[in-house]
Amino acid sequence: MGENFNMVAKTLFGFEDLLEKELQQLGAQYIKKGVRNVSFSGDKGFMYKANLALRTAVKILKPIHAFNVKNEQDLYNKIYAMDWSKYLKPTGTLAVDATIHSELFTHSLYIAQKTKDAIVDKFRDTDGQRPNVDLKFPDLKINVHIDRNRCTISLDSSGDSLHKRGYKTATNIAPINEVLAAGLIMLSGWDGQIDFMDPMCGSGTMLIEAAMIACNIPPNLMRKEFAFERWEDWDVDLFEKIEESLLGKTRDFHHKIIGYDKAPSAVAKAKENVKNAQLEDFIEVKHEDFFKTQKGGDEKLQMVFNPPYGERLNIDMEEFYKNIGDTLKQNYPGTDAWFITSNLDALKFVGLRPSRKIQLFNAKLESRLVKYVMYEGSKKGKYMNN
């Protein structure tokens, strides 16, 4: 196949270990973990594969040049000096985004603008015509990363963030990001060997991600487009071959994935999204109030959910979290329950001691993923069994 090059997969804070492991399993080389990112090496086919198959990546960048910068003019000159004709036609379109951790530069939009100016000026000077900016569907999406005085220019191979899997047409009031959902389920250690439940399933994201993990279905098969499909070296035959080989690795799933929500509108949306994802065979969504339910059967159950957190939904926190604890304790023996919350004070109302706490962020909100283990032989259970 083609030759190997370096890439960077970006992720959410707290998912670096998961992403590193995913890259190892996919067959990446020279893997190196950073903060919110993991760098690795692979060929063009591997770049396609990473975009299709990684559950915890939000972007796959391909660095093409790095240099030191002193000021804005220096940045402009060095970007102007690059040979952009390898990546873009003068009649093409481009978009630039910038991330900056530097005291020299403070304004990422200005840096993105300066980069774009240098590229279009170069084309105008050499070809007499210039590419246009297209923020929605550019032929080339460019990422500028400045860390102190070091600037890295990368091509964004993903385009839209990889959390946009393509199965969601309907979302509810507080939808969870698909990458976040997949990461939570992976952190919980769920591998499709027992039943899974999301008792507050909203638009069904957690259920769908769980089913894709259980069946080893690549998460981004349904996406409409990746940015690399507009690149000069786009190889559709290679892409289809990669897709086919990933589909050949899916597996059967012999347990249940169940979602409850007490809002009929959420249940309808979840069902629609499950249908879009073509996972109706594996997922059952029911209109239920979790606090009035109990576990069916003696099978071990894994629960992962994202309870409402008062930011967007009006609830009495103290009572709500107490109800979570009581319902788990009384009605769900033999269950490992995990949930994420950004309301760190509310955790004390659950009335149970978490066996694990993992620091994460839900969008900009600092959060905790907590685990509660409900043992099979609860006190009530012991007396009833005698």
TrEMBL record:
<dbReference type="Pfam" id="PF02926">
    <property type="entry name" value="THUMP"/>
</dbReference>
<keyword id="KW-0694">RNA-binding</keyword>
<dbReference type="InterPro" id="IPR053943">
    <property type="entry name" value="RlmKL-like_Mtase_CS"/>
</dbReference>
<dbReference type="InterPro" id="IPR054170">
    <property type="entry name" value="RlmL_1st"/>
</dbReference>
<dbReference type="Pfam" id="PF22020">
    <property type="entry name" value="RlmL_1st"/>
</dbReference>
<dbReference type="Pfam" id="PF01170">
    <property type="entry name" value="UPF0020"/>
</dbReference>
<feature type="domain" description="THUMP">
    <location>
        <begin position="46"/>
        <end position="157"/>
    </location>
</feature>
<dbReference type="GO" id="GO:0003723">
    <property type="term" value="F:RNA binding"/>
</dbReference>
<keyword id="KW-0808">Transferase</keyword>
<keyword id="KW-0489">Methyltransferase</keyword>
<dbReference type="GO" id="GO:0008990">
    <property type="term" value="F:rRNA (guanine-N2-)-methyltransferase activity"/>
</dbReference>
<dbReference type="InterPro" id="IPR029063">
    <property type="entry name" value="SAM-dependent_MTases_sf"/>
</dbReference>
<dbReference type="GO" id="GO:0070043">
    <property type="term" value="F:rRNA (guanine-N7-)-methyltransferase activity"/>
</dbReference>
<dbReference type="InterPro" id="IPR000241">
    <property type="entry name" value="RlmKL-like_Mtase"/>
</dbReference>
<protein>
    <submittedName>
        <fullName>Class I SAM-dependent RNA methyltransferase</fullName>
    </submittedName>
</protein>
<dbReference type="InterPro" id="IPR004114">
    <property type="entry name" value="THUMP_dom"/>
</dbReference>
